[in-house]
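This part of the workshop introduces the protein records we will be handling. An example says more than a description, so a record of this kind follows.
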Amino acid sequence: MSGERDLDQQLASYGVPDPKVESVRGSAFTAFVGDDVPTIGEGLWVGAPEGRVLARVSRLAGNRRVEAVTLSESSAVVVGAPVARASAQAHLPGPGAGDTLDLSRASFVLEGEGALGWSPGRPGFAALDARRPALTLGMDALDLLSPLAARGANLVVDQSADASAFVALVEAARTALSPDALLCVEAPGLESIVESSTHTVRPGGSPEGAAWALRAVALWGERSRAAVGSTLVVVSLPAWSIDEADFRFGGETGLEVSFSELVDWLGEALVSTREGAVTLVMRVPVEESARGLADLADTLAVGDVDAQVFFEAGVYDPRRSRSRAEQPDEARVEALRTRGAIARADASRERAALFGDDEIGFDEESDMELAAALEDLDLGSY
């Protein structure tokens, strides 16, 4: 009988624990929410009412628990902090009255006025604009062999020590386009672009901050496309390392994708329509450990882009760069002729290395001189 009384006492004293944070991992956390379980994407208030922040539910963890994320690490998110269901979808904040969206000082917002939403809409086929005219940047070799595509997605694989060549390319593209808006995500080396941009996204301080910023600029770019005539969007993607040829990016943020998926996602989100033109220029820095890997980039899944340009030490590489931008017939013919000359020059160099320079004819010397001139396009000097 004493055992039954003990059980009765335990049952009488049993109570459902209060909803609270159970564990924290940077800007992500796990919380017990009780019987009122929110859905994925819904907002979750964290912390005391006077200092609470809004998180976004990213996963249902079972046993009345959820995993959620905040835009940046917050002192409100600690083990034991109370949580409460917001009963509305959580979205990225809009820029407010200013031209800078500072995610390091922001939290999610509930759906409504000013919210950027979560996923960019996909225009219908009839609304798309398939034109991809070649941009003339005043960089002869690049303009001929792999021109950037206006109204399209352009990827720069940069093996340089800094971003100076990329900055020169963007400045030339801005001059050629004269866009109504320039959207930029802050990144090391892009300070001059940020200063001259019309709209800037500042990533949060968490490791996932870059993922949030890319999602924000895609949503902001979608809004800009509908509001202005022409938009130039400039982003720097995560560095390419030897261990991440097909890296997963943004695991805690709900934007967990491989490199090629990330490029495709941005290209689809910022596609040009008949309503507004968007030119996207993306940079992927290549870490020292992956310099050899970048030589194989044409065989790797880098996404569907209209132009892919390679820099090495600030110098344009015509062999690995390519473009499907629309060029006049004369330029296309000249590009094919020039690429043929480069291929012949490579073969002549190999023959000279084996048999000596005396085996090289006049025509081959001309091809080699042309190839050398193309290889000397140093964008850092523009």
